[in-house]
Every structure is written in C-alpha cells, then in structure tokens.
Design a protein that fits this description.
The radius of gyration is 18 Å and the shape is globular. The protein is α/β, with parallel strands linked by helices. Helix 3 (70-73) links the parallel strand 2 and strand 3 (82-83). The strands form 2 sheets. Strands 3-2-1-4-5-9-6 form a 7-stranded mixed beta sheet, sandwiched between helices. It has helices at residues 15-25, 30-39, 70-73, 112-121, 147-156, 160-167, 200-204, 214-230, 232-237, and strands spanning 45-49, 62-66, 82-83, 99-103, 127-132, 171-175, 178-179, 245-246, 250-255. The longest helix is centred in the last third of the chain and has 17 residues, at 214-230. Helix 4 crosses helix 6. Helix content is 31%, strand content 15%.
C-alpha cells in the first residue's frame, strides 16, 4: 500500500506546500505541449497520470486525469476534474485508453516499476513520459551554485533505462529543447534568466528545492547575487541569454507498442 501525506501526495515531496505557489510559476509551455501531443499520435482517449494542475493535457483529446494530491486537484481548471488515485493502483480496466502520458511525475512514484506496469496495462497505444535524464541534470549552471539541488534531482529521477525496461515494447527517447522564455518554471527553464531563480517562490515551485535546507537557499542567493552584480555569471554563462533554446536534461521517453 502506498503511504500518502495529509493532502494525498503519494511521493516524497509535499505538494500541499508546493501547491501554494505552483500556479504562479508552473504554466504549460506551448512548445513542450506540442512535443507531448505529437508523440501521442492519433489517440482519442488519453490517461494523464500524476496530472497535477493539468499542464500538457491536449485539449483536442478525451483526457482522464489521475492525481493523488488534493492541493493539486484544486488547481485544475473548472470542468477538468481528476481521479483521486495513484500511479501504482489505477482504477481502470485493461486497455481502457488509446494512450497515456505522465509529465514531471515519475520521480514521485514510490513504486516505479508498478506504476509503469499500470500505465502499460491500461493503455493500448503510446505511453509518453516527460521527465529529466538524471545523467544530464548536473550539466546545468545551477550545479555551480547549488549542487545539492541537482544532486537531489539526479538521485530522484529514474534513469531512461529504468523507464524503458518498465514500459517495454519499442521505446524511443527524444530530447526536448527548452525555449528561452519557457512558461513552465522548472529549474532549467531559467537557463538564460538566472535572476528569476532568486525568487524563493520560484524555487518552491520546483520540488527538488524542498529537500535542501535554508543554508543552501541562503548560500545560493548570496553567491548568485554577487556573481550577477560583478559580472562573473555573465562571463561564464552570459551566452545563454541569447540562446533561443537550451538542450538540457528534458526528455520524452515514449513506448509506442506493448510487448
């Protein structure tokens, strides 16, 4: 049985707290949404597991959302409710959906193998997982300022190999470029806008920051403010301000057919 927090969160992060700032910083990025929709193919019915506030759910499909956190369910638009359930125990019959999606969520699942098996069980077609490749997260400039945060992300995100083995079938991994004005405020979205990560609420909207102490936050703020003021950050990373997109750790892992 999966242990759940007070608001129903089933992973290791408390979305009762994260949900307080989520709406202000985590909006679906159209270019990422397009990448997700493309890999869903012509599926008409889609299950979105770990659906959160509903980001990246395609508006032109019949989407059934699954979200254990009451705080996150409350952020969903009117008319788009979510089923209160976990990835590991989906309350649907075998083959109920044409496709499945899971965005920024698999690192929260206590039993990854069981959750992936459930995704494949209820889906006849493609399963698309938007996640970060843990082998790539430390390549981001944030590692120079708050290595504990990206070490946390690298530890929590399952490897692409784990996801592929858990889903089975024909699996493809697709790198997803992050646009410079990305609307979705995960860490790498600020690749060319470092000043925005100085906002504590922006960091609160990224779950990895909840696993480090106040000292890490304080050191990060002090060091980045100093380096922005004296030009050190721009000397090392200023070219990113001009980049139209950043190829970081964001990937889509897509299982197109079942074994």
């Amino acid at each position: 049985m999966i242990t759940r927090m007070a608001d129903g969160s089933a992973g290791d992060a408390d979305y009762g707290e994260i949900g307080k700032v989520y709406r202000g910083f985590r909006h679906p990025e159209p270019l990422i949404a397009r990448a997700v929709a493309d890999v869903l193919g012509d599926a008409e019915t889609v299950v979105n597991v770990g659906a959160g506030a509903g980001s990246y759910e395609p508006a032109d499909r019949a989407v059934t959302a699954v979200e254990p956190s009451a705080s996150m369910r409350a952020l969903r638009p009117a008319g788009r409710p979510a089923v209160n359930a976990t990835a590991e125990d989906l309350p649907f019959d075998d083959g109920s959906f044409d496709a499945a999606m899971a965005t920024f969520t698999v690192h929260q699942w206590p039993d990854l193998a069981r959750g992936l098996s459930e995704l494949r069980r209820v889906t006849t077609g493609p399963v698309a997982i938007l996640t970060c490749d843990p082998d790539l997260v430390r390549g981001f400039w944030l590692y120079e300022y708050a290595p504990e945060v990206l070490d946390t992300e690298a530890r929590r995100y399952p490897s692409v190999t784990e996801l592929a083995e858990g889903l089975g079938g024909e699996v493809e991994t697709i790198s997803v470029p992050i646009p410079k004005d990305c609307a979705d405020g995960f860490n790498e979205a600020y690749f060319g806008r470092p000043e925005l990560l100085l906002d504590p609420a922006a960091r609160q909207a990224c779950s990895a920051w909840s696993f480090v102490g106040k000292g890490v936050h304080d050191r990060f703020e002090a060091t980045l403010k100093r380096d922005l003021a004296d030009g050190t950050w721009d000397a090392g990373h200023g070219h990113l301000r001009q980049r139209q997109a950043y190829d970081g750790s964001l990937v889509l892992v897509v299982s197109r057919t079942a074994d």
